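Practice problem: Peptidase
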Amino acid sequence: MQNRTAYSGGDGSAREDPETQLTVELASVVSAARRRATRDGDRQVDTAHLLHGLLESDPAVRAAFDGGPQVARLLGYLVQRSIGYGLRWHGTVEDSGAVPAVTEGSVPGWSPAAAAAMDGALDRAHARYATRAGCLDLLAALVDDPESRAVEVLRRACVDTARIAARLDGERPGQD
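Answer key — structure tokens:
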């Protein structure tokens, strides 16, 4: 799986401008995830950082959860990450098995699972002939990796990830 975007952190290794690959909304989520990872003292952006950004920024993502108490519960778990919940993740690399932990094409500053999710979002957008990946594309890619930190958070909040995935597959996110 190749990493096609510049979501890696500005070290010049990316091949394309992220604005050509991500909607404005998703680019904002990526920026928020980077800031959160830095603020929390994490070495890499992981899938939980991305999920947190999606839930905070995008009404369409919140609507995918029926906007109910699940969203509040999810945000509660994610906010607790740096003060308790998720501390066992601190200083470790998220490797869900989606891609090898160290690969030639790895994205600096991103966990392998987060990089795979971004690639999955781009693949989903391209499959519907969109020029840019949107927030719902990333949410679908996140729930598609059952071993990711994002899915662990979703499970702890009693979210049925299979139901979310089916809902997202039935919808065509109209973001390009």
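Discussion: The chain has one domain: 19-170. Students who identified this feature from the tokens alone can consider the problem solved.
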